[in-house]
Amino acid sequence: MRATKQRSAIVDALDSARGFRSAQQLHDELKRAGASVGLTTVYRTLQAMAESGRVDALRRDDGETIYRRCGSDEHHHHLVCRDCGTSVELANDEVEAWAEGAARRHGFTQVTHTAELYGFCRDCSSSRSS
Amino acid sequence: MRATKQRSAIVDALDSARGFRSAQQLHDELKRAGASVGLTTVYRTLQAMAESGRVDALRRDDGETIYRRCGSDEHHHHLVCRDCGTSVELANDEVEAWAEGAARRHGFTQVTHTAELYGFCRDCSSSRSS
DNA sequence: GTTAGTGCAAATGATTTGCAAACAG
DNA sequence: CTGTTTGCAAATCATTTGCACTAAC
């Protein structure tokens, strides 16, 4: 993968973001910041980075896929703010244990799971209540 | 909501299905079974039933939304077969407790969660190994 | 120079909506 | 009858792809 200015712009934007962003959001932010990066490139870059594990991708209930620069390579879950996208990584054993137990009890194999939490972070919930 | 033959056909198809089905799948099955129901109607009916809680909807990672006739009105999760769509309902407290605890620890409010398990059921994993 | 990367425009695929015709109560 | 419901076709929306063009190495 070559080093290009649009790729570093995308990575920078993701880094400075406090959490998850959709491809469209990132594209907007880049454009607003004056960087000239095509939406296509944003999609392609995020997709490539997600495949190679350098970002975390997850699909929201409304169908948009959101991405975030991910700290650990370990399997983990997220607590994502619906408003600002801030996220907290949750390394958790209870969920894995639950998943494995349920799979075994019902005779399922090769079980994977998705588990994400969505809410309003401290900052966003206080600004909403005003 | 009026009783129409297309609606009962959709409900019947969902009932006889062993698990989750997408709108497109249901439409195909209905057409194959000789029923004449428009894809639009399948979408509208499933959406209406999901809103009123009569079916359970969840979005797969590939973006398709799948539906299933749901036994309980209670909040619960699913163990879904990737191959045949069969699903098991899981009423579980561990996940809820984990979600609430994580939310509280990080100051998030109005937290909802998604947690679904995907794998191969006993039947499908044995037929795959052959 | 090659080859990978970019971006526009057109294509996709799931889902939604406009609207006139068909139907339930 | 009169308001719902239906279903086709066209519209959306996020995302992907074809392809000529540009930049990296």
Report on this model:
2 copies of one chain form a homodimer. Chain A has 130 residues and is of the alpha+beta class. Chain A has 2 domains: 1-70, Orthogonal Bundle (Arc Repressor Mutant, subunit A); 73-130, 2-Layer Sandwich (Dna Ligase, domain 1). Helix content of chain A is 43%, strand content 25%. Chain A is built from 5 helices and 6 strands, in the order H-E-H-H-E-E-E-E-H-E-H. The first copy, chain A, has helices at residues 5-16, 23-32, 39-51, 93-105, 122-129, and strands spanning 21-22, 55-59, 65-69, 77-81, 87-90, 109-120. In chain A, the strands form 2 sheets. In chain A, strands 1-3-2 form a 3-stranded antiparallel beta sheet. In chain A, strands 5-4-6 form a 3-stranded mixed beta sheet. In chain A, a hairpin with a 5-residue loop joins strand 2 (55-59) and strand 3. The mean pLDDT of chain A is 88. Chain A binds chain B through residues 59, 61, 63, 79, 81, 88, 90, 92, 94-95, 97-99, 102-103, 106-122, 125, and chain B through 59, 61, 63, 79, 81, 88, 90, 92, 94-95, 97-99, 102-103, 106-122, 125. Strand 6 (109-120) of chain A pairs antiparallel with strand 6 of chain B. Chain A binds a DNA duplex (25 and 25 nucleotides) through helix 1 and helix 3.
